[in-house]
Amino acid sequence: MQVNKQKDDDGANPAAVVAPSARSGDRPRGVLASVLGGSLAAVLGTALHAHIWYVNGVGIPAGALASVVLATSIAVFVAVAARSIFFAALTGVVAYILVGLAASLSAGALIAAGVEVEGALPPVAIAGYVWVVGLAVGTVAAVALSWWALRPSARPEAEAL
Predict the structure, then answer these.
(1) CA dihedral defined by 133, 136, 141, 144, rounded to 10 degrees?
(2) Burial level of 92, CB count in 10 A (0-12/13-18/19+)?
(3) Rounded Cα gap, residues 95 and 48, in angstroms
(4) Which domain holds residue 135?
(5) Where is this region: Disordered (predicted)?
(6) Number of folded domains that form the chain
(7) Which of 5, 37, 83, 104 reaches 20 to 30 Å from 160, CA-CA?
(8) Is residue 123 a part of any domain in this protein?
């Protein structure tokens, strides 16, 4: 049985990856996109993270979870648009630095971390911890997802076409 391999119009095998790696001329735009994306993730995530859903009297930090998903999504989008995994990490680092600066420079009354009410952390303090720790985890996840999205295809079906 003979398999007919289809060739591109230039006679080469079909490309395995739709998104090639970033060219050196695209790096300044990738850095700019990372700074803007990280800033957007930090601002929107910080505004959103304190939203708490109460289910049967139990506070669920839904805003913090949504903030982590948003920041991760923005980092993956920037990396795929810039065609480089590096920009996912840079976007997350920018967001993390800005969140850290906002937390350290803001008035102490705005930060509920370390506050206990009746022997337990209030849901808003838990949301803050989820946002800060989740942002770091989301950055690692964004790098992994970007790698997966930009990796060369290793599927045997791609060669059989």
Answers:
(1) -150
(2) buried
(3) 14
(4) 30-152
(5) 1-27
(6) 1
(7) 83
(8) yes
Provide the CB-side half-sphere exposure for 128 (13 A, CA).
15
Residue at 129 is within a domain: yes
Tens-digit pLDDT profile for residues 9-36: 555 555 554 444 555 567 889 899 999 9
Residues 91, 142 contacting (CB under 8 angstroms):
yes
Q: Is 82 inside any structural domain?
A: yes
CA dihedral (88, 32, 26, 134) in degrees, to 10, reads 0
Cα separations (Å) of 134 from 76, 90, 140?
A: 15, 16, 10
Place of tokens 């600066």: 101
**3-state DSSP assignment of residue 114:** coil
Burial class (CB in 10 A: 0-12, 13-18, 19+), 54: exposed
Structure tokens that stand for 157 in this block:
């079906």
Residue 37's nearest CA partner among 100, 85, 94 is 94
Point out which residues pair with 145 in neighbouring strands: none
pLDDT digits (tens, 9 = 90+) for 90-146: 999 999 999 988 877 765 545 555 555 555 666 777 888 888 899 999 999 999 999
Spell out the residues 6+ positions from residue 113 whose beta carbon is closer than 8 angstroms to its own.
125, 128, 129
